[in-house]
TrEMBL record:
Keyword Signal applies: yes
Annotated region described as Disordered, given as residue ranges: 38-87
UniProt name for this protein: Aldose 1-epimerase
Molecular function, one GO term: aldose 1-epimerase activity
Protein's UniProt keywords contain Coiled coil: no
Keywords assigned: Carbohydrate metabolism, Isomerase, Signal
The species this protein was found in: Arabis nemorensis
Lineage summary: Eukaryota, Viridiplantae, Streptophyta, Embryophyta, Tracheophyta
SUPFAM superfamilies: Galactose mutarotase-like (SSF74650)
PANTHER family named in the record: ALDOSE-1-EPIMERASE, GALACTOSE MUTAROTASE
Amino acid sequence: MARVSILLCLVLLITLGVVISVSFADNIEVKSTEHNIEVKSSEHSESSKKEKNVDHYSKHKEKGGEKVNNDQNLNKKDEKKEHDDLHKKRKSGDIVLGYDSIKSYKTDKVYFGATVGRVANRIGKAQFKLNGKEYKTSANDGKNTLHGGKKGFGDVVWAVTKHQYDGKKPHIVFTYTSPDGDQGFPGELNVTVTYKLVKNNELSVVMEAKPKDKATPVNLAHHSYWNLGGHNAGDIFSEEIQILGSSYTPVDGELIPTGQISPVKGTPYDFLQLRPIKDNMKDLKTGYDINYCLDGKAEKMRKIVELVDKKSGRKMELSGNQPGLQFYTGGMLKDIKGKNGTVYKAFAGLCLETQSYPDALNHPKFPSQIVEPGKKYKHTMLFKFSIVS
């Protein structure tokens, strides 16, 4: 089954054209160029549903949901200033992996830029119990459920309900309603994802969800693949990373947590100090794909990751309010044809997925993923970009 996604090309300040592109997935294609912003819808690839989705989207546009070819008057002086702020020697670059077309996103199987859910990461044996009832979820990773199942949130059409491309805080808002029983999960769930460009070259991503009338698990995550050297720069081994997580959740051969929480000290997972990713790669055949138990109090915003590419001079800092972080170095990427004809091989990009712990539904000692009716799930990320000397 094809996966539907979007390419949302944000550039930290929308007036910069393609200075730094950031790719996200939510089923709308937004391309920022030097003189305009083009918004295009993408429909589910199943031919039986495609026309229906097109009609729905057209109606949404008539109500003011989107505007295609929204021209912007750019201030060239400001553009030049911000360009210099973001890059060494005025060298720009696209720092996320992705595709050139919506068509490629529809068949994507590695979640380039996707918003994943209803429950991100893995659910062991595709089952869990809630309030005494056993639920079977859609198995799409062997016998387990990964990123919401066969038709998770990265596989559906979202609606654009708000957008602003000029002013002090350019932003775009996506919404989706997941029905009761979707992929085996209980209860209707209303979801909103807001991307906003804020001061100091920062990108804010806020994911919110509200159950309608049943308790349900919620664990949303953002799945961009980053390469600060550029999406076409090759592997990410030389990049340096700091992860402020003193412990991690060991996994079995199917990447399902064992239930233990172990310290990172003395293991290849110790990135408490900034160091090259490649330092301990020799000890891990397929690279990193592990959940960190983050330091600091969950639900409070705090810095959790620093990523540096000394060659390009780019630095990214990630702050968030979730208890966990999945660090994945793209070991399962294999000859994927991406942007501008680039072929992405293993380790071409890395994912930093703030989240609750994987398989928390089957481990009572892990932070709970259950959201009750009347309560709201809120997941906030802040990406800050700068240069290093």
